[in-house]
Amino acid sequence: MSSLTPLISARAALEELAGTLTTAPAIGLDTEFLRERTYRAELCLLQLTTPHGPVCVDPLALTDLAPLAAVLGNGAPKVLHAGRQDLEVLLPFVGAITPLFDTQIAAALVGHPAQIGYGELVRRTLGHELPKAHTRTDWSRRPLSEEQIAYALDDVRYLLPLRDSLCEALDKLGRLEWLAEELREMEDPAGLEVDPERAWQRFKGLQSLDAGRSNLLRGLAAWRERRAVARNRPRGWILDDTVLREIVYRVPRDAVQLAALEGMPEGVVRHSGDELLALVATAAISDPPPPLPRRERPDPALVARVKRLAAVAQTIAAELQLAAEVLVTRRVLEEIAAGRKACDTLHGWRATLLAARLDAVD
Fold first, then answer.
1. Per residue in 158-176, pLDDT tens?
2. pLDDT tens digit string along 111-141?
3. DSSP string, 333-348
4. What is the mean pLDDT of the chain?
5. Distances (CA, A) of 9 to 6, 169, 301
6. Cα–Cα distance measured from residue 162 to residue 104, given in angstroms and rounded to the nearest whole number
7. How far apart are the C-alpha atoms of 175 and 42, rounded to whole Å?
8. Regarding predicted confidence, which is higher, 187 or 258?
9. For the sheet containing 53-57, what is the strand order?
10. Average pLDDT for 59-72
């Protein structure tokens, strides 16, 4: 008989939990965290299922979660719902978590909405209504009430029954291999951390910039990402997106021009102005800079082809009783419409189902 309590806050109990989990055929997992004031999410609570029932682990009361690293890094499947953020939050504490089963991904492949929530999936699949009273609670405050703990336990209580039900449905549909492909991508820990040199990719609508401004965007985005990581502060606290865009568009050459940009905080100019101007200089943009590209109207022929491709994708999705966005994103359809072969753009089960029919669209 286990002596585990619903809330684990002592090292000895954590070690007992780790030992108990080694015999579990599958482990449900969820987290509660805060991210309003920091770059890295602050882990406030970890919920896990055990053979004796769900438990909460209090990371704010424990020095570390190392005893869980081995059991979460291999062995039994770890079952989450929309688990990317949970994996990201837990990475510094227990390392990469494998193998994985994501009930939101599995549900989408069965035919549920692509972004279906945990509570709605529990209601549809298992017939249970979950309370919503603590959806906006501050999980960093202590002590936690009995109601908060009960709410947190419910977040993992139904994960394993959901997994069983979804696996049965996917097996009947012949789609278990589809899920295996999706989960292999999810298990790659490289996708959980932002490479500062790729931080510029977060900015949309800047693909038509001249070469100099493109270099400046890359430099500014990487500088901001490194600064946010080093200070553990949100990106927007270092430099707001709109202000970063203004630097790229206006290309200030000195502190006066920098300070004159719309929305530029005085403190940023005072403390980081020299670094920002150095990035402008490094980008080697002519003075005056090239004219900003005019916002061109979309090519009507390209728009029409995207619509035809989308119609084919919708037809295939309807045949499979899936949401179309599960099959293919609009970005991929735009790439195909622009001339890239669907067989080169799509992979795995999606390529098998879609590539030939999309490549046949004129």
1. 999 999 999 999 999 999 9
2. 999 999 999 999 999 999 998 776 678 999 9
3. HHHHHTT--HHHH--H
4. 94
5. 10, 38, 62
6. 10
7. 36
8. 258
9. 7-8, 53-57, 42-50, 27-34, 78-80, 100-102
10. 96
CA distance readout (Å), 290 to 21, 256, 262, 293 = 61, 21, 20, 9
For the stretch 345-357, pLDDT in tens is: 999 999 999 999 9
- The whole model's pTM is what? 0.89
CB neighbour list of residue 30: distance below 8 Å, 6 or more residues apart: 46, 47, 80, 81, 86, 152, 155, 156, 159
CA 349, CA 342: separation in Å to the nearest integer? 13
Residue spans per domain, the chain: 7-192, 196-282, 300-359
E strand spans, the chain? 7-8, 27-34, 42-50, 53-57, 78-80, 100-102
- Is residue 187 a contact partner of residue 96, using CB atoms and an 8 Å limit? yes
For residue 30, the SS3 value is strand
Q: Please state the CATH superfamily assignment of the domain spanning residues 7-192 in this structure.
A: Ribonuclease H-like superfamily/Ribonuclease H (3.30.420.10)
Q: Determine phi and psi for 112, rounding to 5 degrees.
A: -75, 165
Separation between Cα atoms, residue 362 and residue 341, nearest integer Å: 12
Beta bridge partners of 7: 56
Domains 7-192 and 196-282 share a fold: no
Cβ atoms of 354 and 342 within 8 Å: the answer is: yes
How many secondary structure helices (H) and strands (E) does the chain include? Answer: 18, 6
Which pLDDT score, from 0 to 100, does residue 2 have? 64
Give the pLDDT confidence score for residue 194 in this predicted structure.
82
Sign of the torsion formed by the C-alpha atoms of 139, 141, 143 and 148: negative
CB atoms within 10 A of CB 5: 12
What b/e readout covers 298-309, taking b as 16+ CB neighbours within 10 angstroms? Answer: eeeeeeebbeeb
Domain 196-282: top CATH class: mainly alpha
Q: Is the pLDDT of residue 99 over 90?
A: yes
Closest listed residue to residue 71, CA positions, set 26, 32, 102, 101: 26
